[in-house]
Amino acid sequence: MASTNRVSRAASPWGRVIYWLPTAGCLLSCLLLFTGCTNSASAPAYDPDHSPPLSPTQALATFQIKPGYKIQLVAAEPLVEDPVGLTFDEDGRLWVIEMRGFMTDIEGTNEDAPLGRIAVLTDTTGDGLMDTRTTFLDSLVLPRSLAVVSGGALVAEQLPLWFAEDTDGDLVADRKNLIDAEYGGSGLPEHSPNGMWRGLDNWYYNAKSTTRYKRAGDAWTQSETEFRGQWGLSHDDAGRLFYNYNWSQLHADLVPPNYLSRNPSHTPTSGIDHGLTVDRSIYPIRPNLAVNRGNIPGNLDDDGKLLEFTSASSPLVYRGTALPGFRGDVFVCEPAGNLIKRNTIAENGFTLTAEAAYEASEFLASTDERFRPVALASGPSGALYIADMYRGIIQHGAYMTPYLREVTLNRKLDTPVHMGRIWRIVPDDWQPPASTALSEASGEALVAMLSHEDGWYRDVAQRLLVEQADPATIPLLETVVIKGANPLGRQHAMWTLAGMDYKDPATFLAALKTENDLVQIAALRILEGLKKRQPGAKIAEVTTDILSSASSAVQLQLALTLGSLVKTNSSSPLLGILSQNVHEPVMRDAVMSSLHNWEMAFLEAIWQAPSWQTPDPNQSIFLEMLTTAISNRQQPEEMTQLFAKIEAAKANNNVRADILVDALAVNGPKHSDTPTMLKTRPTLVASSDATWQTRVANAMQGISWPGKQAAPVSTANEQTMDAQTQALFAAGRQQYLAGCAGCHGNNGAGLNRFAPPLASSEWVTGDPTPLIRLVLHGLEGPITVNGKNYDAPEILPVMPGHSVLDDRELSAILTYIRRAWDNNATPIDARTVSRVRHRSQGRVVPWTVDELLNAPEVLE
């Protein structure tokens, strides 16, 4: 339906707009679509070189969906235009973000015009088909984020974030209150915060952002949090946040927000922004020539179909019941490929992994190039809802290449604009459930709903109870926490009480004795905030009681929690947890996050522990992390103790001396503008061993004492690194230890049956392009290093790729391995990694050596 057929707005003193589908014939057509008879209407003959706009009925015939499911139309233009986000309110109304100013022509000339809107779509007949529309908020510049709250909604546009209030309940905003004037950051749609997702802990998180927001009474507060993803956000039943990047379809947090950033002396390398899968393959059912790098070999297959994700967005963890067997799965949109991928999630100890649910095909795909699924949502019906922007241009003008511009204009994909559809996916035999009106539910009913089998109801009930803050619901919530039969309900009840500023720790201490991961983890997190009500020693005493039977997930939370309670009593259990799980990078980071201001005391405990006298590689990694944190604190007394330990270990030929010295050489206080001033010269400086003396001198950079005159002794390798490269080198060391040392060894010498050496390897120190490609996509088969051929079983048959890491992280690792262990190659910056990544886009399998040697050169 072309934009010329749009229904004009009706006049209203409050700016309220209600749209009715224009004719009975159109209404009948839409109702027919709800039969799910996708073959009842036919699309125009498929032409891979031409993509005319299709009516909703025609578009329905272009979909391929997995057996047992059907796709149904919920709304279409003119009822909705340019939808980029959607969510349901407590009464089942569908709220939609309309980014009507996005690329209205090939030049993007109307981008700054206030064309955007927030629409509320309502189903008045109970059949699931939206038939009326109210414009909640108009005249917005590129709106991109929305969260429904009592009394209105949080709405983000180009830059500001507003709390738009509806004071009289007519679904029209009467007042806008500024929450954050700089929410949008750069303002560019691809690189601005979005997603506005209410977490289990009552904070609102955002993709592409380091800020979270929370409502306390009538006030809104904000705080810093970790950076997450690019477009879209959701969480699983345990509250873990899921997100992605346009090139990497699925990431998640393995630990709750803001834990790993508590220790300013330690930089974590795991736990947050964990890539769940390196598989970037997609399987469109039509050519995708109108993509930014479609002219670069390797991006499209021989039929012109996109090979891998290029615009992944809106990862949604499905937590409903209407789609049997899908609970816990994650759906990801790929608008450039006109498809939606389904991933299954596996949990193994501390780690989550994802796998495509189907081999060489997708859950939903379309032959209509204008099908642009950009956002997903679930609602009270349990169906999976899709915001289809339905347009030709999906690439923002700031990043449109000359190739894409030419293809777009030649194929007339720039017009028409202001179309859009909302679809939903349901089982073949599905019937719409009864309508929902939670705004009228009693407090007792809402408390009961916290144990609902569908996650949408639990989330909304928690939000409403927290916003209403009715004291009468507190005894009901306490009962659910202590005696509830459903662990999910008990978890939500605890976070509801926390959101209501409930202060009695006894309720959470009682919950802690329940042998269920979700319940225990929630109780531990909330108890941390109640130390003033219940002494930390008492909480620590109760928490240690559960340690012997704790699962790996609860042990991880204990590692995060114990250090914040009481330092003197938590050293022993923390060391025990670490010793059991030191092979897990996320556990090492979790313990480090709990050690702020008492790293040296923990080193003393490790120094005496019998199982740590001859460190294994994983213990060595942790010792290096701990040494680095002590150095970063720049406390003279602690550094004096540290040097004394190194000296004693060296005298006894203990390998721990080498670990500590090398940690200081790479990550020591030389990075600070202010030297650490000791009272006297460490006796460690005096040594007749020239090699040891050089290593000690490097460790002593940034350390001073009265009378120190000699310039620091450095290797040639160190002398060639400026401050920026040295910082990159140090960051790469941490990344390497977390993700690479397990196969290549802490010293880069390689490990038998795992991987070949990196030290003095021509693959590491040679041309950066093959090295970047190898690390991005992996390597399969034999490889020759320094004249020796390595093949299975001497090494693993396949080295996995690391494409889930971003350009900055990869550049740090590569710079480190090119400069460590007497390697002396040039650094690799993030721009170079990005260029090779883009040039290699479409590569979905590991390289072989022959392919790497014969791959085309990457030009500027």
Would you give an account of this structure?
- Strands 1, 19, 20, 21, 22 and 23 form a six-stranded antiparallel beta sheet that branches. Strands 2-26-25-24 form a four-stranded antiparallel beta sheet, with no helix packed on it. The protein has a four-stranded antiparallel beta sheet with strand order 3-4-5-6, with no helix packed on it.
- α17 packs across α18.
- Helix content is 31%, strand content 18%.
What is the fold's blueprint, element by element?
Blueprint: H1 24-33, H2 56-60, E1 63-65, E2 69-76, E3 83-88, E4 94-98, E5 116-122, E6 132-140, E7 145-149, E8 152-156, E9 161-165, E10 175-180, E11 194-198, E12 204-207, E13 211-216, E14 219-224, E15 234-235, E16 241-245, E17 248-252, E18 274-275, E19 313-317, E20 330-334, E21 339-348, E22 351-356, E23 364-366, E24 373-378, E25 384-388, H3 402-410, E26 421-427, H4 443-449, H5 455-468, H6 474-483, H7 487-499, H8 505-512, H9 517-528, H10 536-545, H11 552-565, H12 567-581, H13 585-593, H14 599-608, H15 617-633, H16 636-651, H17 656-667, E27 676-677, H18 690-699, E28 703-704, H19 716-719, H20 723-739, H21 741-744, H22 762-765, H23 768-777, E29 778-780, E30 783-785, E31 788-790, E32 798-800, H24 807-819, H25 830-839, H26 849-854
Helix pairs in contact: 4-5, 5-7, 6-7, 7-9, 8-9, 9-11, 10-11, 11-12, 11-13, 15-17, 16-17, 17-18, 20-24, 23-25, 24-25
